[in-house]
Amino acid sequence: VVNEVGALGKHIALVGFMGAGKTTIGRKVARLTERPFIDLDEEIEKRHGSIPKVFRERGEAEFRRIEEELAREFLRERELNVIALGGGAVTSEATRGELRRHAFTVWIDVDLDHAWARVCESDRPLARDRDAFAALHRERAPLYSETADARASDADDVVLRALQIVFAPGRLGSPLSLGERPIALVVDEHVARRHPLRLEGVASTHHLPPGEAAKRIDVVASLWSELRIGRDGMVVGFGGGTTTDVAGFAAGTYLRGVPWTALPTTLVGQVDASIGGKTGVDLADAKNLVGAFHYPLSVQIDTALLATLPEHERRNGMAEVVKTGLLAGRPVWDLPEERMVRACAAFKAAVCLSDPYDRIGRRSILNLGHTFGHALEAASDYTLAHGEAVALGLLAALRLSAIETDVVDEVLRPEPARVDPERAWHAMQRDKKAQGGRIRLVLLEAPGKPIFPVELADEQIRLELDRLIAK
Ligand SMILES: NC(=O)c1ccc[n+]([C@@H]2O[C@H](COP(=O)([O-])OP(=O)(O)OC[C@H]3O[C@@H](n4cnc5c(N)ncnc54)[C@H](O)[C@@H]3O)[C@@H](O)[C@H]2O)c1
User: Fold this and answer.
1) Does ligand 1 lie within 6 Å of residue 305's CB atom?
2) DSSP assignment string, 394-442
3) Residue 433, C-beta contacts closer than 8 angstroms, at least 6 positions apart
């Protein structure tokens, strides 16, 4: 199912007042999502000379005409861009229309004092007099608000909102409305007991067994036959990664696709599983082999729910957190919980925006440490926790990258796996067959600089695999 949520299939356009930081934020969003960056004011200057000069010699009306023409040109480009528009661009009705049709528009909000401090010494024609500047700030706010699909204050915020991921600490403990659609609530049994949800408009509730036992096609088949919502309805998945994988897959297939919303309740769910549109179930001897892309209409992340998470489940999530920090080149594991989850969710959202349907290989970097991890999990008959396996896999990836392993040692403290080395090697060979005869690893040139694919000699890989296994 291909559904276009947020900025999928659309430009990301940044609007907002002078001095809001649209250019700086836009550049960062472009780098994170691997989209080209276009600064509309810069493009105007390239073609027509400096903006103060255009204002002086041709007047504001002519400047607005040029701005409108260029906005149309870039917003109609087929390649998906990140576009920062000038502060006054939204005064044009035509530009507002183009934005509605072709862009996911984010309002970079800034208060008057900050905006003035940033631009009062610049040569911007509309930033000469503080009272006039303040009046313009007041006047334009409703236009930004009317045009924008979301409001944000930094690059991570933009990327999160571009996949409709919302952080709302404590929100799921209060009465909650997700709009007008009748809701089929799909909830993990454990979670339902610990966190009763006061959700408006629930037409039916469906309990899933906790854990991987939920990710079976017969569980989905029961859901299909129990669901009573129409296409105007919505599935809501409330639980960890297994629940959101199943709820999303049921939503993606029932009536050939109804919308869904993810309410992830585990660290794995909040930093990884609920983000990026992959949904699905396991087959008897292989995980995640049947599924579909079906992006949720929104993901509501409430980190307060993590308070009840058992320690071993938190460790599973921390392995993904450390992986994300290594890929992003940011020590996210040192941040307070809310900010840590937000940074990781934003990183994954950006990678997914750069390759929403996993077609150009960019999402493969998210497998850092997972190739070795999968082999160890398989060799343990899945008794080894996923987080433990990933932590060991990260050790191997760092060693092969010639990078210190101290972060993994200190934050995750993995113990060598008690598995049969031959079985683990065999599992890796099976993966290799599935990948066209080669083991393609994600390694790091340095933290923040992933490289993929890397192919190494079997002997070298085997040596590292063996180092992860208890003697
Ligand atoms: N779709 C994706 O892109 C993606 C990415 C990563 C992982 N996954 C999938 O996610 C699954 C793992 O997710 P998970 O680790 O969240 O597992 P999970 O959903 O099985 O949850 C783990 C356990 O925690 C319990 N739990 C959930 N929330 C709780 C809370 N707030 N307090 C107390 N207990 C709670 C559950 O009942 C369960 O027993 C795997 O199946 C994996 O394949 C999917």
Assistant:
1) yes
2) HHHHHHHTT---HHIIIII-PPPB-S-HHHHHHHHHHHHHHTTS---EE
3) none
High-pLDDT (> 70) share of the chain, %: 99
Please give the Cα distance from 119 to 18 (Å, whole number): 7
Three-point CA angle 336, 22, 111, nearest 5°:
75
pTM, whole model, 2 decimals?
A: 0.96
Cα 185 to middle of ligand 1, angstroms: 17
| pLDDT value at residue 276 | 98
Q: Share the mean pLDDT of the chain.
A: 95
Ligand 1: residue whose CA is nearest its atom 27: 240
Q: Residue 27 corresponds to which tokens in the numbers above?
A: 């550049």
Please state, in angstroms and rounded to a whole number, the distance separating the CA atoms of residues 350 and 329.
14
* Cα 39 to Cα 41: distance, rounded to the nearest angstrom: 6
Residue 471, pLDDT > 90, answer: no
Give the C-alpha separation, 212 to 313, whole Å.
13
Residue 37 · residue 23 · CB < 8 Å: no
Per-residue pLDDT, averaged over 173-184, amounts to 95
Q: Which helix (H) or strand (E) holds 106?
A: strand 103-108
Residue 459 to residue 420: CA distance in whole angstroms: 17
E-strand ranges in 224-326 read 234-239, 260-264, 278-283, 286-293, 298-301
**pLDDT above 70 (res 11):** yes
- Cross-strand partners of 35: none
How far is the CA of 463 from the CAs of 384, 424, 457, in angstroms? Answer: 20, 12, 10
Q: Atom 36 in ligand 1: which residue has the minimum CA distance?
A: 210
* Residue-wise pLDDT tens digits, 103-142: 999 999 999 999 899 888 888 888 788 899 999 999 999 9
For a pocket test of ligand 1, which of 268, 279, 321 has the largest count of ligand atoms closer than 8 A to its C-beta? 268
Residue 412: Cβ-neighbour burial (10 angstroms; 0-12, 13-18, 19+)? buried
Is residue 272 in contact with ligand 1, taking CB distance under 6 Å? yes
Angle, to 10 degrees, between the axis of helix 155-162 and the axis of helix 22-33? 50
Residue with tokens 């109609």: 76
* Alpha carbon distance 288, 340 (integer Å): 27
Q: Tell which one of 165, 208, 212, 245 to mutate to probe ligand 1, the residue whose CB is within 8 A of the most ligand atoms.
A: 245
188 lines ligand 1 (CB under 6 A): yes
Read off the pLDDT of residues 353-395 as tens digits, 9 standing for 90 and up: 999 999 999 999 999 999 999 999 999 999 999 999 999 999 9
Strand order in the sheet with 103-108: 37-39, 82-84, 11-15, 103-108, 150-152
What confidence tier does 3 reach under pLDDT thresholds 50, 70, 90? low
